[in-house]
């Protein structure tokens, strides 16, 4: 096949690949919006959410999250759907019989996968965190189940090595808590504790205050305490850190997240692994697009009895197993069983081995 002819084929494969991907993503977005609207319509009406806010502050900011969430699966299905049709019509055999190598045949697929990877990386690192800020603000205001989270019953945070803060009934809108305890430990032994009721936070001075408080000092088996007036203390703790951890890190772009992780590590926080999982996931998941593309092409490029349906069935099973393995390793990483930097890349390494095996078995 001459170079001009193969360039035409490149454009044909890229157009079909990207076209199938965009069509499937668009269809899923429409279905998602319809079902989500039906589920949340009562809240929107009861809390008088403006149509403009629903469209632009909520759904427009939810679409990037949804696209990124299903991008790997849709990429996989698009590759299998299109390639298995080429195989069923024996077009792949015709292409390879012209002297073109299977590696050259893969080129437009990898170029398409590269474009999707760049898109998902941009969404993960920059676009989605900004969109999440607007979406979460909307949910807190107009969705009842999210409004209930603004008034949190129990919050535990580590502000520095050996120092822990407990807040009860923290209300983010008013920056108040019904009760606060600050505990300091040395070698797992409590050395000092401060208890205060009806505390409030001043966002300008970043200080916590209360009318009165009790301070307790522990010296072996002895305990001394004093009741004092006028608590006014600064803590290495921002109110933004008091929200749900999942919501907090999802509103940070990759640079903010990096600085936040270093800050939490300096505090000796026991939640650093959770934050590190978020950072590693933002890179590992998009890179998986290449692996899933290679699996999809290698699997569906051979004409088999059962045709497209069999290819799609096997492909979806492999893709969902990839997602399942990712979830397992994520939980192990969060619990500190496996180092985060290793755990979050295990699925990619495992399925790369599967991809290489299927590639060797693919028709050459």
- Counting structural domains, the number is 2
Helix content: 55-70%
Helix and strand string, N-terminal first? HHHHHEEEEEEHHHHHH
Q: Assign an overall shape.
A: elongated
What is the tally of beta strands? 6
Count of discrete alpha- or pi-helical segments spanning 4 or more residues? 11
Largest sheet, spatial ordering of strands: 1-2-3-4-5-6
Largest sheet: 6 strands, antiparallel
Would you identify the regions where 5 or more consecutive residues have pLDDT less than 50? 1-5
Tell me what portion of residues adopts beta-strand conformation.
Answer: 15-25%
> Could you give the distance between the termini?
16 Å
What is the radius of gyration computed over CA atoms, rounded to a whole number of angstroms?
A: 27 Å
What is the average of the pLDDT values? 83
Would you tell me the structural class of the helices and strands?
alpha+beta
Topology readout:
Layout: H1 3-46, H2 51-88, H3 91-97, H4 102-142, H5 144-147, E1 151-160, E2 163-171, E3 176-186, E4 189-202, E5 207-219, E6 222-234, H6 245-250, H7 254-267, H8 272-300, H9 307-334, H10 340-343, H11 346-361
Antiparallel strand pairs: 1-2, 2-3, 3-4, 4-5, 5-6
Helix pairs in contact: 1-2, 1-4, 2-4, 2-8, 2-9, 4-8, 7-8, 8-9, 8-11, 9-11
